[in-house]
Amino acid sequence: MSAVPAQRQTLTIVSGFLGSGKTTWLRHQLHAGEFRGAVVLVNEAAAAPVDDALLADLARVIVLPGGCACCDKRSEFLSLLAGLVDEKMRSGEAGGHIVLETSGLADPAALVEAIRSHPMLAHHIVVDEVIVTVDAGCGLANIRTNRLVAKQIEGADRVIVTKMDSVPSAACSALCATIARINPGARLSGAMNGEAMALPPFDPTTAVLPGHSHISEILAVGTADTSLTQPILDFVRTASEERKTPTSKIAARPTKRPSPAAAR
Ligand SMILES: [Zn+2]
Fold it and tell me: Separation of 149 CA from ligand 1 center, angstroms?
């Protein structure tokens, strides 16, 4: 059985590591009129969701809290999508768009696979784009210390480097080179507070490969000019030190300030 194409809904997945600026970016896009009319599905690992309060005044928001849609909350996530498909079919309207903001711990490729291998959703939901946000400030350290961050980048059609004002452009260039090395096919752009911002030019040889502990060796291969590499090395070293907190602690800390919309 195949679905009538006009009844298919498109799904945009917005993913990225903890604190990488997904909500800020998405909220700005909604304000700017992107994803107009879309249902926004917010998945949060935390049991008490906070992200949705920032979005609720801009779109219809459905929250899936208390776990990650790509793993422990997968069946709930798929049921939610099935419910949206059912609702759309009953309404008789064609098309429709869903935007999923994943938890910071999600692997977007696993989400795409879960939909494509679902007997019903595979015919009714088309994933149109996977967008992954990467924090300019700690993205490089995160890539090195957490395999999930590289996996998120690998699964992206588009990578947005956020908080670009937070780092010198040499560090941002190394991050861009690294992202381009991990996923050469992804479109790469920059943002600050959700607003598009031009990325600095980058040299592919300055890419810092995930899993390597000897960055100095990697960078030394790329360029003999230590005046270029030293600031990056210092930056990565400091950032790595700051990020030694275990992931469980990062996940547990409060990440958002209260919003006036929360009182609704
Ligand atoms: Zn997961």
Answer: 12
